[in-house]
Amino acid sequence: MSTTSTMSRRQFIKTSALAGGGLLLACHLCAGRRDAAAGGDTVFAPNAFLRVGTDGSVTVIVNKSEMGQGVYTSLPMLVAEELCCDWQRVRFQASPVAPEYNHTQFGPIMVTGGSSSVRSEWNRLSLAGAAAREMLISVAAQQWRIDPAACRAEKGVVHGPADRQLSFGKLAARAAKLPLPKEVRLKSGATVLLGRPLHRLDSPAKINGTALFGIDVHVPGLLTAVIERPPVFGGTVKNFDAAKALAVAGVKQVVTVDAGVAVVADGFWPAVQGREQLEIVWEEGAGAGVSTHAMREEYARLAATPGLVARRDGDAQAVLAKAARRFEVEYEVPYLAHAPMEPLNCFVDLKKDSCLIRTGSQFQTVDRNAAARVAGLKPEQVSLETTFLGGGFGRRACPGSDFVIEAVQVAKQVGQPVKVIRTRTDDMRAGYYRPMWYDRVTACLDKHGLPLAWQLRIVGQSIIAGTPFEAAMIKDGIDGTSVEGAATTPYAIPNLQVELHSPKNQVPVLWWRSVGHSHTAFVMESFLDELAHAVGQDPYQYRRRLLAKHPRTLKVLETAAKKAGWGRPLPSGHGRGIAVHESFGSFVAQVAELSVDSTGHIKVHRVVCAVDCGRIVNPDTIKAQMESGIVFGLSAALYGAITLKAGRVQQGNFDDYPLVRMSAMPQVEVHIIASNEPPGGVGEPGVPPIAPAVANALFAASGARLRSLPMTAEKITTARKKG
Amino acid sequence: MIAFTVNGTEQQVEVSPDTPLLWVLRERLGLAGSKFGCGEGLCGACTVHIDGVPQRSCITPVGDVQGKQVLTIEGIPENHPVKKAWLAQEVSQCGYCQPGQIMSAVALLARKPKPSDDDIDRAMSGNLCRCGTYGRIRRAIHVASGHVARKGGPKP
Lengths: 723, 156
Known about the structure:
CATH topology of the largest domain in chain A: Aldehyde Oxidoreductase, domain 4
Number of strands of chain A: 31
CATH superfamily of the largest domain in chain A: Aldehyde oxidase/xanthine dehydrogenase, molybdopterin binding domain
Distance between the termini of chain B: 27 Å
CATH architecture of the largest domain in chain A: 2-Layer Sandwich
CATH class of the largest domain in chain A: Alpha Beta
Number of helices of chain B: 5
Mean pLDDT of chain B: 94
Shape of chain B: globular
Largest interface: A-B, 65 and 58 residues
Oligomer: heterodimer
Number of domains of chain B: 2
Helix content of chain B: 25-40%
């Protein structure tokens, strides 16, 4: 789930060149398993990713989890573009867990994350489609006894000279008997599907109630379990009395698992009712001493001391030491919950020598292997079926496989199919949060008012430390996800130093949509804005001056500013703020326009977004993901905070962990930059710029500079008084 | 025994009357389109109509719907203008909240065939969407209201 492994230009150059030239490519993938997910009417399954039926239907096997980002449409589009099939006949199917579905870049695991689905699968799925197309053409050419080069495929039909035609459905059975091609030629010329705003293939199921999410899985005899968890992280059960719980009608069993005490019942409601009757004495342990208030003080102390150096250009320390005027401030952001609308859950049907898991996972291989370990089975004895995910945002890619392991532990003691469901409060309090961050940033300016030296000290937990990814993703003590977006800043700052402290504590942390960028963009883009204002320069023009060598960043910045009418007068009490950030191979700029009332409440009226994500598959999906990232980031910027007191998480539902609602929704406009650059991600890059754009707009509107998220009315009122 | 009508079909369930309607629909009647999101009436993912009024089924004891008419997402016809507008505007992302959103939108349009943006804010702000599809939901409701007006009101 590396967020740092952006597809390199070299890796992608093959496809870029091919798009124009139709070069030959070795077709390694064709050696893949051919029986995967084969269906009844399938006759032609040339590789693991597609099958063609005798009726001409095409099923694309998708190895990425659908959690809102549209992979059940964008990935089939990649296959269909090269296959030259009829888009109206394309269907999708979730892939099983198997090596041929592993991520092309993140190691031997099946995983959806890092905004990588399209960019990591572009080559492989294009090849899969092209190989099948060439085989279908070969069969037609054989039948017509002509050179395949005289044939072409279009909309599911092979056309030969003299108006001869054969449909894919008619060719499928014979194509299945052909040997797999050793090399494949990609199409040349204009694209037919790519770049068009095709409708999502999964929309109909999502609006009629038939889309199956993990929580919807049902089988005869199914039991449902809820787990009472310790009140603090790391706590354990000392002893418990289940008598009253067992007396609740419908409760079948009470069992202990590593996560706590599980109440198993014939439905969700009796399980919850039974859980309320449990009497448990907990051994709380050191977790009881955790408070975010104390943690903040510790982080502030650390921020005053040197950390490990993640980037050093020039000599920021020496320049700052000599500076006549230094700017030094501290920024902070809280823990955040992912809070997907579908609370975590997992269905397990465990038998003596097999185990079926059905759940919404982003981390299938890791979860399957964890289930096998817990069940005492071999990985190949465990099948994991991926359902629709009611939101993921990183939470369903957990290296600890927490929601799968607890369900298998329950299943081992139950002897019947069982589904563990978390209530919203379970989901919010059971952990795995975006880390809390505390950053100190110091800068001085040159005679033109531009940054001469910039030192940033980042303090916060490492997400990667202690996971199996530590060896690959932590270099010289630096977790790249902690500093991404800061250590990689494009701004021309001659003396730049980014340092990192990675304190440890009991609070479990995880990647949260846009990972490190979710805090570094806030710090970098807010502070830059502060410097611009400090020298009386326009924050947009100030950024432009520092981005001369970064044309893609500059272009999105200029586009967003222009489309937003930057500089045009606004109603009294309104302000505009701008921010730009690169993440996951894409460049995004946003201009937010807001007003703030006398009580300190912000109303964001409009957000204009410009994105350059390289070559595109589906422009509507890109727009939707930008809209989505903006709202997700806005909820965090305005409301989001998970806090702990005496080890206890203080938030539990959407009343104390609010999200943006319809009434707070700004008007959002998205502008996509036409580009032939390698594809970038779109699931996450819309998130990072919104918090600083809003913070900068707040300053423009009110003079209040907020260096702490969320931007509550109380903080705004205090900042105004200071202002 | 509690008897009520769901999507036009009479149902009888033997269940504790304090059981939330949501879990009776999902676990007893096989209607899993209504979703569990918060359990406290805060997110709207479980929205159904009870005698024509949108309600949070996660906090409605099934005993309270004795003799009443319940309409769920499964009972909204495929050609309903709201569903058509949802498809045309490509509203759905993860899709989990959309059954609840659609039920709230259908109720709004039944009550107010040409809603203003303020009407939409009021009627829809009880339905959370973590994917942030609000802008498209608003557009879809306006589009559907055109259809609705032409057809003289939605017939759920």
